[in-house]
Write a structure and sequence with these properties.
11 helices; alpha/beta; about 400 residues
């Protein structure tokens, strides 16, 4: 197994653009790649492209009629069919939509193939993580579900156990749906409680299909306002134990940056420093529990497009490259010039929010009156017994 890390990148991913006033501004991708370069991380990883996912690959997850509808909307956005979730407020159609979405999917599939072949141990596609797209519909800013497609490709290649860990503020519903009945895939999602936030799913009782699929889905639904200590406590109370038991051959993780306290679309209060800590934890867990330390790390949501997203995902690239960026480091002036040129905003000054990252381990006991602990207990009680674990 190679110790190399790959960064999947093609400038054309910035064509995934829902329009001027849409929250998912592609400038977040351009600024992230700019910050990666400013720190010299493009020399610590191999930056590679991959071809767009073709129809045969897209059909590993998506219905043929849906792909046809995306193609049609991509050519004629005004005729987009809302029955497929296209041309809606969340997912406006735009010229070239199919090509841009297929490229993002192709980058994630390429990342998965590379780590499985042994070309690299780790691969990052921060343009990916489109975890809401369903087999037959766009949803939540997501057209093709690159995370599910990457996993499906791994299964097609003969992988027997894939773990998917999703720490976006929104439930990873599309990936869960794609593998609901498949015991080869363990999906774990930590997200804001579905009572408070789109897509309204991700209850702890959602534990996978009947029979062999029982216990293949894990959902930790956190209360609004959860901050660093609670978020990290929940992650470490659930994820390591499940990965230790499942022993995946590949870990796929989704690192939406929208858990951050500055994010305008959600209600958790997590800092950049805690996001970095979870990225590092996923890296450590890959080395500890995953065969060959195979790790595919994806982006996801994140709508504080200047202050948060580029810093968070640059940390992710640095961690995957085994060259982590020091949180206290002063951000290069050249990148701040790029920020101002593209957005007319002033960029952040350092790679930290100045938070001290600490949490209380689950083995220290839990408080039945604490809402985060209640969420953890609900998730563990729902799924751990199904997997033969002590809740």
């Amino acid at each position: 197994m190679s110790g190399r890390a790959l960064l999947m990148w093609d400038d054309a991913v910035t064509a995934y653009n829902f329009g001027k006033h849409h929250p998912m501004d592609p400038v977040r991708l351009e600024l992230t790649m700019g910050l990666v370069r400013a720190y010299g991380l493009d020399g610590a990883v191999e930056v590679v492209a991959a071809p767009p996912a073709g129809d045969s690959t897209l059909q590993l997850v998506h219905r043929e009629d849906y792909i046809a509808a995306v193609r049609a909307a991509s050519k004629s956005p005004q005729d987009a069919d809302p029955r497929y979730g296209l041309g809606t407020e969340d997912d406006p159609a735009f010229v070239g939509m199919h090509e841009a979405a297929a490229l993002i999917a192709g980058l994630s599939v390429g990342a998965a193939e590379a780590v499985w072949r042994g070309d690299a141990s780790h691969a990052v596609n921060f343009a990916g993580g489109m975890h809401h797209a369903m087999p037959g519909a766009a949803a939540g800013f997501c057209v093709y579900n690159d995370a599910a497609l990457a996993i499906a490709r791994l299964l097609e290649k003969g992988v027997e156990r894939v773990a998917y860990v999703d720490v976006d503020v929104h439930h990873g519903d599309g990936v869960q749906t794609a593998f609901w009945d498949d015991p080869r895939v363990l999906t774990i999602s930590l997200h804001e409680h579905p009572r408070m936030l789109f897509p309204g799913t991700g209850w702890p009782q959602e534990t996978g299909g009947e029979g062999a699929g029982a216990g293949s889905a894990v959902n930790v639904a956190l209360p609004a306002g959860t901050g660093d200590a609670g978020w990290l406590r929940a992650f470490h109370a659930v994820v390591p134990e499940l990965l230790a038991d499942f022993r995946p051959q590949v870990l796929v993780s989704q690192h939406g940056a929208d858990t951050h306290f500055e994010d305008p679309l959600a209600h958790l209060t997590v800092s950049l420093d805690a996001q970095r800590a979870v990225q590092a934890a996923c890296h450590e867990l890959a080395h500890e529990y995953v065969e060959g330390a195979r790790w595919v790390a994806l982006g996801g949501g994140g709508y504080a497009v200047v202050d948060v997203v580029p810093r968070s995902w640059t940390h992710l690239v640095g961690i995957a490259a085994h060259r982590p960026v020091e949180p206290e480091s002063v951000i290069p002036a050249g990148w701040k010039d790029q920020v101002y040129a593209l957005t007319r905003e002033w960029g952040p000054g350092r790679m930290t929010d100045g938070r001290t990252v600490a949490w209380r381990g689950w083995d220290e006991g839990y408080d039945p009156a604490d809402r985060v602990d209640q969420a953890v207990v609900a998730a563990r009680r729902a799924v751990f017994p199904l997997r033969g674990l002590w809740a």
